[in-house]
């Protein structure tokens, strides 16, 4: 069994001007993930940001997860369903952990029987396993991109080195905050897209590991329970 271990990569952001001419084929999104994945909008100092968010259930609590670099510092966050309607889900609280590029939203008014996703807290995947990255590519249609587990990437976040999940999934603007799914569970959260050099054909999707997110959620739930 080949497990992935942290590997320090020298990465350069792949800009739109050097994106591949023939991006991977866009796959059809299954019905259940589609309904659990939301288009996220943020307002900050008069500008509107777009990202992807998704609803999860963790230890009988409901949360929406989205990208930190889009939602942190925003004074207003709202969602749309895949059909384009404004979602009734309301944001009651926002947590921006400093350990990764992710935002955790406490939500309420979630419709009964609304589909949700689950985290793979044990990260039960191996190198070269197939995974699917979901997101609203360029803020428009919900798409799915197939990739392979490549290992992990060590990146500096808030002045500290953090370990991210690395895949071959091709991410585009607007897909930040979307889920990476292997099997039927979330193994990561879309963060950014890198290449080793500007001319490189080998691409690396970078994602917040689900195991790190699950640990933080466990800690938050425990603190809330203690305060009661």
CATH topology of the largest domain: Thrombin, subunit H
CATH homologous group name of the largest domain? Trypsin-like serine proteases
Oligomer: single chain
- Beta-strand level of the residues, as a percent range? 35-45%
Supply the number of helical segments.
3
Annotated CATH architecture of the largest domain? Beta Barrel
Strand order of the largest sheet: 8-9-10-13-12-11
Low-confidence stretches: 1-26, 197-201
Largest sheet: 6 strands, antiparallel, barrel
Q: Summarize the helix and strand pattern as letters.
A: EHEEEHEEEEEEEEEH
Q: Which descriptor suits the 3D outline? A: globular
The total strand number stands at 13
Q: Output the structural class.
A: mainly beta
Q: Span from first to last CA?
A: 44 Å
Give the helix/strand layout.
Blueprint (H helix, E strand, L loop, with lengths): L11 E2 L17 H6 E8 L2 E12 L2 E6 L1 H4 L4 E5 L9 E6 L7 E6 L21 E7 L5 E16 L2 E8 L11 E4 L2 E11 L7 E7 H18 L1
Antiparallel strand pairs: 1-12, 2-3, 2-5, 3-4, 4-7, 6-7, 8-9, 8-11, 9-10, 10-13, 11-12, 12-13
């Amino acid at each position: 069994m080949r497990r992935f271990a942290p590997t320090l990569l020298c990465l350069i952001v792949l800009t739109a001007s050097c994106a591949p001419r023939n991006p991977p084929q866009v796959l059809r999104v299954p019905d259940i993930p589609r309904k659990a994945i939301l288009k996220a909008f943020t307002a900050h100092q008069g500008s509107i940001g777009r990202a992807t968010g998704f609803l999860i259930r963790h230890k009988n609590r409901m949360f929406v997860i989205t990208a930190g670099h889009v939602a942190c510092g925003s004074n207003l966050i709202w969602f749309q369903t895949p059909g384009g309607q404004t979602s009734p889900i309301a944001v009651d609280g926002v947590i921006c952990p400093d350990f990764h590029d992710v935002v955790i939203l406490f939500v309420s008014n979630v419709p009964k029987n609304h589909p949700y996703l689950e985290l793979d807290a044990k990260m039960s995947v191996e190198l070269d396993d197939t995974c699917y990255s979901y997101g609203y590519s360029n803020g428009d249609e919900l798409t799915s991109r197939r990739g392979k587990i490549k290992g992990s990437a060590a990146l500096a976040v808030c002045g500290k080195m953090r370990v991210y999940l690395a895949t071959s999934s091709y991410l585009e603007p607007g897909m930040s905050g979307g889920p990476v799914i292997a099997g039927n569970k979330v193994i990561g959260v879309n963060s950014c897209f890198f290449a080793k050099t500007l001319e490189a054909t080998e691409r690396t999707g970078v994602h917040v590991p689900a195991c790190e997110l699950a640990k933080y959620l466990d800690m938050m739930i425990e603190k809330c329970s203690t305060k009661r």
